[in-house]
Amino acid sequence: MEQIAQEKAKREKSMPQNHLGPCIADEETEWLQSFLLLLFRSLRKHPPLLLDTVKNLCDILNPLDQLGIYKSNSGIIGLGGLLSSIVGMITVAYPQMRLRTC
Question: Per residue of the chain (102 residues), what is the pLDDT tens digit?
């Protein structure tokens, strides 16, 4: 994030002075981009966290469908269950991939 902030500062210094300033939409997109970049880097450095996040996202599909919050078809529900089961089997087969709680 620091690198992105430094690059942004360099771009602002190199802009002509008659520029009206950044648009509000640009600021929102930059915030989202920096958040997603930080999330991607964190998950890439910690594979157990990535597996647990994928499993939890797959597990939440069924309750959301049953409660009517987010309707999806049975194929998506089944795919989510299958993916969640595969991730669960990976964590059993490779204990080092299990998320540790302190």
Answer: 677 777 777 777 776 555 555 566 667 788 889 899 998 999 999 999 999 999 999 999 999 999 999 999 999 999 999 999 999 999 999 999 998 877
Q: How many domains does the chain have?
A: 2
Q: Within this chain, do residues 2 and 19 fall inside the same structural domain, yes or no?
A: yes
- Give the Cα separation of 39 and 33 in Å (integer): 10
Give the structural domain span for 34.
1-45
| pTM > 0.85: yes or no | no
Q: Are residues 39 and 53 in the same domain?
A: no
Q: Are 53 and 60 in contact (CB under 8 A)?
A: no
Residues 6+ apart with CB under 8 A from 1: 34, 37, 38
